[in-house]
Amino acid sequence: xxxxxxxxxxxxxxxxxxxxxxxxxxxxxxxxxxxxxxxxxxxxxxxxxxxxxxxxxxxxxxxxxxxxxxxxxxxxxxxxxxxxxxxxxxxxxxxxxxxxxxxxxxxxxxxxxxxxxxxxxxxxxxxxxxxxxxxxxxxxxxxxxxxxxxxxxxxxxxxxxxxxxxxxxxxxxxxxxxxxxxxxxxxxxxxxxxxxxxxxxxxxxxxxxxxxxxxxxxxxxxxxxxxxxxxxxxxxxxxxxxxxxxxxxxxxxxxxxxxxxxxxxxxxxxxxxxxxxxxxxxxxxxxxxxxxxxxxxxxxxxxxxxxxxxxxxxxxxxxxxxxxxxxxxxxxxxxxxxxxxxxxxxxxxxxxxxxxxxxxxxxxxxxxxxxxxxxxxxxxxxxxxxxxxxxxxxxxxxxxxxxxxxxxxxxxxxxxxxxxxxxxxxxxxxx
Length: 431
Description:
This protein is an all-beta fold.
């Protein structure tokens, strides 16, 4: 029985992000409710400058600065790419790792300068960082020079009244490299009571004098609960899931991106519903031929995975039998999906505050149609990233930054994650 017994208390082991030869033998965190919390001490992960930039990208609060850091699992590549007074969120590599897109929340006085650099000063303040799903603007960062440029517009959506307040932006999503006229960054935008999907040119042409980047927008209707936008592999479609609200049925929506970079986005099309009013998560296979939808979040103890097989025409879908997940939680508050390779993707479910297991990790195999429990964790996980080879799972919890050797966990030889750092990491991306 995978749920039997108590979770073990993880003991500190050699930090794969550190070059240190020894580690404090004291327990660093308990995964059981009521036990002592972690020993929150400053980490030196983002204090080591120099070397090529790392594969893992994340944001962290360092005193008054919001810092974007890259690092590698072997301890190399620990570089500070950006430090600002504004809060940086959702940093994500472009497909070729030449640029970083991020959302920024302006919590500093107007005109406060960005401070790029190769190192940072002061200790990292431990503590919880609240999720910031929406921000004031979308920016592109050059990781080599630290130069930051905004691709969103301060006035928000052209021709839309701002009488309800400022425009706010969701996390950015990069287009594939094959998209015509790209690369682009897609993001949700809220203007008062209306929500839009925005498409921002992210190429270098947009920063040259006399060549302003022209964003494109399409209305999604009244602001409701939407999943983050997901690009199809050919770069011609952007997919989202919407919960049933304001009289609109729940289900899958697609926005078609014309080949002409100056043509408007081609509307919002409804591609089907499976009856859930809960906010769901969407993942698309690397080859673009299969979608997986997670439903049941927020309303039931049981979650379902729906496989949606596509024919050559995107609108011709067939839904295979659902896979039921029965996690040991009274309520599933959130869910995340991430493709690891052509046949496998990861599922992360987050339980409620009264649940012993507040985060539950699964591996789902497409060929066998089986979802296997990978890790039951007693802390709330807010964001996670899988390594491209599927070997490592790095995740952010309230107790800090953790790493799990997925291969060893699958074999059953090691199911205890490694506590990597107590620093309040905000978002993760790995390429």
